[in-house]
Amino acid sequence: MAEQMSWGNNSNCEFLNKKCVNNGETKFPDMFCTTKSGDNPNIPAGLQCTSDRQSLGTCSSIEAKKTVDNLAEHFQYFSENNKVGSEESEQMDYCPIIMAKKGYSCINGEQRNKMPGSLIVNNSRCVEGNELKTIKDEAAVGAVCVEVSCKFNKVIVRYSGNDKWHSCPEGKNLTVNGSVLKGEIVCPKYADVCNTINKTLDELQGPQKDPDPVKEVQTSQPEVTETTGTPKPTENAGNQGVTSPVVQNEAITTTESKPSETKEGRITSSVSGQNNNSTAKKGADGSFKASLFASVMFVFLTLSMIMLP
């Protein structure tokens, strides 16, 4: 399986078509550097993160033995006449990069006393600091090694002087709160640190619980009326002619909107009409029977009188 490399990943076309550094400035600070050792007083010994974040190192820009006039123009990156990006290496176009210092590995560095505030363990990776200082002597720390876990699909870190794990979202600064350092660390990209860590060790030594678990959101339940025990309607209930129960003097009445009243009126009229028709039919049937009975009695009486002697 090919090694996953984050260096240059997701960079635009300028990364290939333009100069890596132009007049001492770069658009790709994760790949190239512009500050050599000792140039920046806020970075002790120029310690910065290598591109793979596995070591602390320094910028490769050097004082050239000969002026940059001897280099092609597209290899000239600084305004100073005696400053070049790196030693003679056409493979890197003489671009200045962070070179790992011997013994400054975040995983098993031997120069721990020269790596202030760094936590040296198997899954440690380098992160940049923001106004990061040691508490003991207020010494500025440019970059520092922190233990990294990639469980729960995110970057989680643990730094020197604090045994707790802390979520470190990409693009955010994490305030350091411990006994060794103060200030902030800049949270790295997930791919920069998680593609190379030992996942087996991470499962064994990483956090057992998510430092920032997602809280369950409780859905609101409808209120229940005291008398009926039925859920109360929402505020918008009844906007479309829906009836809503209202308790009045221990009895349930119904408030209805105009559409319901019209519908009820139609239903009532229809029912009343059917009742009237039934009554009329019953009256007609009764009158017919009475007339028939009277006719039969009249014929019977007439025949009786005729038959008398």
TrEMBL record:
Residue ranges of the region described as Disordered: 203-284
Keyword Nucleotide-binding found: no
Record note on cofactor: Binds 1 zinc ion per subunit.
GO annotation (BP), single: proteolysis
Required cofactor(s): Zn(2+)
GO molecular-function terms, A-Z: metal ion binding; metalloendopeptidase activity
Superkingdom of source: Eukaryota
Compartment(s): Membrane
Transmembrane segments: 290-308
UniProt KW keywords: Cell adhesion, Disulfide bond, Glycoprotein, Hydrolase, Membrane, Metal-binding, Metalloprotease, Protease, Signal, Transmembrane, Transmembrane helix, Zinc, Zymogen
Known EC number: 3.4.24.-
InterPro entries, sorted: Peptidase_M8
Keyword check for Ribosomal protein: no
Pfam families reported for this sequence: Peptidase_M8
UniProt catalytic activity: Preference for hydrophobic residues at P1 and P1' and basic residues at P2' and P3'. A model nonapeptide is cleaved at -Ala-Tyr-|-Leu-Lys-Lys-
Class of the enzyme per the UniProt entry, highest EC level: hydrolase
A single GO cellular-component term on record: membrane
Biased composition (Polar residues): 217-252, 267-280
PANTHER family assigned: LEISHMANOLYSIN-LIKE PEPTIDASE
Family assignment from sequence similarity: Belongs to the peptidase M8 family.
Protein name: Leishmanolysin-like peptidase
Organism, as annotated: Trypanosoma theileri
